[in-house]
Amino acid sequence: MDAPDNSPNFNAARKKHQPGTGSWFLDGPAFTRWKEDPGILLWLHGGPGCGKTVLCAAAIKAVIDFCDSRPSTGYASFFFDGRSAEAALLIHDKLVRSIIVQLAHRCDGIPAALEEMYHNCDQGSRQPPIELLEATLHRIVHSFDSVYIVIDSLDECSERKDVVEWIRSMTSTASGKLHMMATSRSEPDIRRGLCSVVGLEDVSVIGQAIEADIRIFLDARLAGIDDWNEPGLKELVSDSLLGDSDGMFRWVALQLDDLMSCFNRRELERQLKSLPKGLDETYVRILARSSRPKDLRRFLQFLAFSRRAMTVHEIAEVATVDLDTSDLPAYSAHLRYTDPNKVLGICYGLVTEVDAGIIKLAHLSVKEYLISDHILSGAAATFHTDEQLSHSMIAQTSLAYLLHFDKSDSLSKDTLPLFPLARYAAEHWVAHFHSAGSDHGNVAALQQLQLHFFEPSPSHAMQNALHLYDKEVSLEANFDRKVEDFSPPLYYACRSGSTTAVENLVNKGADVNGNRGFLGPPLTAASWIGHVETVQLLLMHGTYVNAKSWLGDTALSTASSRGHVAIVKLLREHGAVEVEGSARPRSSAIDASGLGSGIRELEKEEAAAQIRAFQAPLLSVNLRRDCPGRRETFHLPAPWQSLNFWSPSRGTTGSKTNVKPHGYRSRPISNDVNTFTVHPAPAAT
Hints:
- Helices cover 45% and strands 8% of the residues.
- By secondary structure, the chain is an alpha/beta fold.
- It folds into five domains: 7-206, P-loop containing nucleotide triphosphate hydrolases (Rossmann fold, 3-Layer(aba) Sandwich), CATH 3.40.50; 209-275; 292-391; 425-595, Ankyrin repeat-containing domain (Serine Threonine Protein Phosphatase 5, Tetratricopeptide repeat); 609-680, no CATH class.
- Strand 3 (146-152), helix 8 (160-173) and strand 4 form a beta-alpha-beta unit.
- Helix 19 packs across helix 20 (422-435), helix 27 runs antiparallel to helix 28 (565-573) and helix 28 crosses helix 29 (588-595).
- The protein is globular, with a radius of gyration of 28 Å.
- The chain starts with 6 loop residues before the first helix and ends in a 5-residue tail after the last strand.
- Pfam families: Ank, Ank_2, NPHP3_N, WHD_GPIID.
């Protein structure tokens, strides 16, 4: 299901919870009614830093305790998280997948609706559209007596219009079963969308209740500070912070941390008289006094726009790339931090450790301030960034880091732990490159780095990066590949969508009709990615427009199956025709390109989708473990034969055969108590 793991967010929020706080909500009438009566949508809203996520996690804990003794009751939760660019924590699709998986764990066996969805998606060979996911979830909800769903930080979702509409639909169609709760800032679009829901329970995190919680939090923190035992001193601190807090736990916590640096009462009183107003002014002070502003800015850019959660060691390694000394960014081991944990000190107040060794921005408001116009008028103006500039910096850092591995033996299983950023750089530099845009001053440097990376020969840096991550071969690092196992640099340049590198390689004599890539010739790879400029460039240099891959695919069938209408039109203008024998289904993109009409939304697939026709039968057999002795014949696309699959009686062990087409190393079949026998068949039956 590819559902994200939200447990780090939940655990981090629970760790921040101060015992005794939140009782006004958890023991209050709104939450009590919501637990008891289905059909209520409970919306908890408040301003930034008021403790909504901590309160939400406390509510989830209460729901778990309430439901655990009720086996026919399901529960699920999800934390949207906009502190980075981690798509899994930002989009509607992942929310629904996560809830399906969590509810399935409360079922006895695999829910029938989930099995049906699997079969409707050709035994897992394609991803389900959001409509099918929603329908499946709806059926699973109705299989329980009651279901509790809690969603945090709805305002941080990148598709919140879709999520709000889905919430409205779920609460109306499953009102007899469903208890839904959401937290967010009180954004106008969210308020408009939710206020039309019948049964809305609206709770605001403001007023005396939240002030009482902040007082409890302050008393607990101050009780642990032995240096402030002068009469009345702790009361002075507590009253001052509470009076200026404006209901923000985060602001209070940051001021307490800052006050700890005072050496005497005079300094403490002076600082209490000049407290910053709000979070923005607090961030100005933290940033402006940094002793390593350049490193801090890059660390924050990485954390704000990384594609996944980052470790302390990975972030510290960012400093090893020198952006200033020479014309191009370059790796320097002399810049490596002797202690990676010093990152936590440099970023103090701005980052938090959410799991063992995993750090994130401490709060969404940190990212919002860094990219806002407000920062430009203050002492922290040099820390200002934007999305494209940050992605460009990350792409440059990643490429410069990878270019350091410029020998065939630069990386191995033994040396990989010495380079913590290598895996991230290899896996994500392309995504950051495409997100960088061209409206910043670093385009030339980024292009030059790509030219070096895709050197025609030898391209050791590129090959070492592919050792680390090549989703066409394996999702794990694989150092067993030989030079001849790699496709030419032109193929990988086309796959990355780097038109600059493609043009450079073609001008140096690269074969535009070479057919050694997993996706086929360079034109097919570019058509898969959907990069029109790269396709145009290849066509200009005489690539054969109807060349087939080893699966029988052409650039036209590939572009069509991916829904790239502009490329389908372009290929047709250059003589592309539909051919027999393609392994891909005909898409409406072909019709759309001819008629000039729109194209239906297609599911996004991984680059290994060609082999899913082979993997799917294995998966379907694994899911049918309750049918021992059943024999079926599956028809596979060329160059594979038709294979017979059957499972032996439970408890026995069978042999297994892995078919390895050219360019692909198949994964072993799972070896458990019911191993499946796989035999090649001489002919289809």
